[in-house]
Amino acid sequence: MKVVLLSEGAMVPKRVNEFAAGYDLFTPKDVLVNPGRNMILLDISVELDPQTEGEVRPCSGFSIKGMKGYSLNDPNTEKRFDADVIIGTVDEDYRGIVGVIIKSFEKEPFLIKHKEKIAQLVVKKYVGTPFEIVSELTTTDRGTKGFGQLEHQ
Ligand SMILES: O=c1ccn([C@H]2C[C@H](O)[C@@H](COP(=O)(O)OP(=O)(O)OP(=O)(O)O)O2)c(=O)[nH]1
Predict the structure, then answer these.
(1) Of 25, 36, 28, 33, whose CA–CA distance to 69 is shortest?
(2) Which of 31, 38, 77, 88 could disulfide-link to 56, CB 3.0 to 4.6 Å?
């Protein structure tokens, strides 16, 4: 796969080892996360393998402990902040800047420093067959049961 680094600080997505499903995604500079929804641009554009898509996913450490960052009035003390990565899809034909969507539940902005691992990109094969309209589906043991044990008609 190919990557273009669009700024001096941009980082190549990297798997931590050969067993990692995801390529870690890093901040290309210090970035400010505002309350609410944010798009953090990674300053990279990518060309994925044919028939694959990239899933931008959270890292579990941040999901459970909060995102690593710094208060603006205390920029030397690393803290955890209540903010989550929202899952996104990078299409095979997308050539724009890859971004990570972060929703912050904090009341104040906070800073994530350069080179911080903020998300991971899992590249997967996708199935592109179209949906065919039919009047009936094949039967299964589960049938319509889903969402716990709710029955749907
Ligand atoms: O977390 C994300 C989500 C999306 N994208 C980029 C890549 C993706 O190929 C493009 C479009 O995303 P998507 O297809 O999900 O957006 P859409 O809302 O369906 O609109 P459109 O495709 O018209 O832009 O935005 C990212 O860089 N990061």
Answers:
(1) 33
(2) 88
Closest atom of ligand 1 relative to the 98 alpha carbon = 27
The predicted complex's ipTM stands at: 0.94
Cβ of residue 98 lying under 6 Å from some atom of ligand 1: yes
Flag whether 146 is in a domain: no
Neighbours of 38 (CB within 10 A): 19
Q: Output the CA 150–ligand 1 centroid distance in Å.
A: 32
Residue 81: count of CB within 10 angstroms of its CB: 22
- Is residue 89 in contact with ligand 1, taking CB distance under 6 Å? yes
Q: Name the pTM for this structure.
A: 0.93
Domain range for 82: 2-125
Nearest residue to 57 via CA among 21, 3, 17, 6: 21
| Any domain includes 136 | no
The CATH number of the domain holding residue 21 is 2.70.40.10
Q: Which of 37, 48, 89 to mutate to test ligand 1, by most ligand atoms within 8 A of the CB atom?
A: 89
- 56 occurs within a structural domain: yes
Residue 150 has a pLDDT of: 64
